[in-house]
């Protein structure tokens, strides 16, 4: 146990001083602002004032926040930190958030709290795509998940599960890279024709090689180990022309996480896919009937790395002891998930189908028998 008389180190004092939450306040009345995906603006829940990002920046002249922002930029987060305790500025409750959480909700008053000390330095995002699909649309999609799927359990999309849907900004890396690409192989042109009763086939075989420097812009890779890569890949694409400079105000009303896989760790995980994309581009320049690549070489030069937050609606449902995760693209509304099967429904349907088949065969045989007796 630590001695009560021990003095804190400068790092500990700095950490304690910076364990605070920053909320987006309405410039008109001081009430909490939340980002409204439907109107694409920030709306006050009390006075109904609406602001876009530029208006909010222009009206936010709070000196205390400015001083806090300055301190944040000087703060270096301790990599050994696992949990951070912060105080809600609205009701005073103390909330504990884990290392990756950068925006959460107060459990007591419900207001959004942005842990701004976690968004500085290397963790400060460059870009963001704001939510365009609101919570009502996400809830409706999950509510209708059984449509066209007869084996979905009736209680799977129960109201208590629908209420678990939350909007979350997921961390992504964007890579702009030049790939020096080379392939060589064989191509074949096959021609067939018929003269009289004779069929002919002529095959011409060629050797080929292709070389090019292929420039790729903003190749995405999710930067959190806590989100399933296949799930994140499935809800893409986003419209990357809609990327905007990061502003912490967009986090109001949503959860958010910071990356736990840096750019050097993330890039090798998509390098194979990038190689395949470059190979396909080179193959497309050939005019042969069939192409077989026998040699390939790719060299990557990363020109730029950008850190971005992308919007996702998520719900994690525990059913029969197993977790089922669903995700919706917060910009396009594309919905993906691992849907469970009601084994009882499957068994009953199988038995009924089998019995109907048996009865059908019996009736057909009976009809044929009676006809043969006429």
Search tags:
single chain; 374 residues; alpha+beta; ten-stranded mixed sheet; three-stranded antiparallel sheet; flat
The N- to C-terminal Cα distance equals: 100 Å
The overall pLDDT average reads: 75
Task: Give the helix tally.
Answer: 8
Q: Element order, helices and strands?
A: HEEEHHEEEEEHHEEHEEHEEEH
- Portion in strands: 35-45%
Biggest pleated sheet: 10 strands, mixed
Shape: flat
The quaternary structure here is single chain
Residue ranges: pLDDT <50 for 5 or more in a row?
A: 1-22, 61-82
What's the total count of β strands?
15
Radius of gyration: 29 Å
Helix content: 25-40%
Q: From the helix content, strand content and strand pairing, which structural class follows?
A: alpha+beta
Give a short synopsis of this structure:
The chain is α+β, with helices and mostly antiparallel strands and 374 residues long.
Q: Would you spell out the secondary-structure blueprint of this structure?
A:
Blueprint: H1 10-17, E1 33-36, E2 41-44, E3 50-51, H2 53-59, H3 63-74, E4 83-87, E5 94-98, E6 101-105, E7 112-114, E8 127-128, H4 135-143, H5 159-162, E9 166-195, E10 198-222, H6 229-235, E11 244-245, E12 255-257, H7 263-283, E13 290-319, E14 322-329, E15 335-337, H8 343-373
Parallel strand pairs: 8-13, 9-12
Antiparallel strand pairs: 1-2, 2-3, 4-5, 6-7, 6-12, 8-11, 9-10, 9-13, 13-14, 14-15
Write up what this structure looks like:
With 374 residues, the protein is an alpha+beta fold. 26% of the residues lie in helices and 35% in strands. The protein has eight helices and 15 strands. The protein has helices spanning 10-17, 53-59, 63-74, 135-143, 159-162, 229-235, 263-283, 343-373, and strands at 33-36, 41-44, 50-51, 83-87, 94-98, 101-105, 112-114, 127-128, 166-195, 198-222, 244-245, 255-257, 290-319, 322-329, 335-337.
């Amino acid at each position: 146990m630590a001695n009560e008389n021990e003095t804190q180190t400068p790092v500990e004092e700095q950490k304690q001083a910076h364990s605070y939450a920053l909320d987006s306040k309405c410039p008109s009345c001081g009430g909490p602002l939340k980002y409204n995906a439907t109107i694409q603006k920030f709306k006050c829940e009390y006075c109904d004032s609406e602001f876009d990002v530029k208006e909010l920046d222009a009206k936010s002249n709070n000196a205390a926040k400015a001083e806090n922002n300055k301190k944040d930029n000087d703060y270096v987060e301790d990599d050994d930190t696992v949990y951070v305790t912060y105080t809600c500025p609205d009701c005073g409750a103390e909330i504990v958030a884990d290392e990756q959480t950068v925006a959460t909700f107060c459990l007591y008053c419900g207001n959004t709290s942005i842990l701004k000390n976690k968004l500085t330095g290397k963790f400060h995002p460059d870009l963001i795509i704001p939510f365009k699909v609101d919570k009502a649309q996400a809830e409706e999609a999950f509510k209708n998940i059984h449509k066209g799927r007869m084996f979905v359990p009736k209680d799977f999309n129960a109201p208590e599960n629908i209420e678990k849907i939350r909007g979350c900004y997921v961390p992504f890396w964007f890579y702009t890279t030049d790939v020096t690409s080379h392939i060589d192989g064989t191509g074949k042109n096959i021609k067939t024709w018929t003269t009289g009763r004779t069929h002919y086939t002529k095959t011409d075989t060629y050797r080929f090689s292709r070389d090019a420097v292929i420039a790729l812009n903003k190749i995405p890779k999710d930067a959190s180990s806590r989100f399933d890569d296949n799930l994140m890949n499935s809800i893409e694409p986003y419209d990357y022309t809609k990327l905007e400079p990061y502003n912490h105000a967009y986090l109001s009303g949503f959860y958010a996480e910071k990356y736990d896989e840096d750019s050097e760790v993330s890039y090798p995980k998509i390098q194979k896919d990038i190689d395949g994309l470059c190979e396909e581009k080179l193959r497309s320049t050939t005019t042969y009937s069939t192409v077989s690549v026998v040699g390939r070489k790719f060299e990557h030069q990363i020109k730029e790395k950008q850190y971005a937050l992308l919007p996702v609606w998520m719900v994690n449902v525990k059913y029969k002891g197993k977790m089922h995760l669903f995700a919706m693209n917060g910009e396009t509304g594309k919905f993906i998930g691992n849907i469970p099967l009601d084994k009882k429904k499957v068994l009953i349907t199988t038995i009924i189908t089998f019995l109907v088949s048996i009865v059908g065969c019996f009736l057909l045989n009976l009809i044929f028998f009676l006809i043969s007796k006429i």
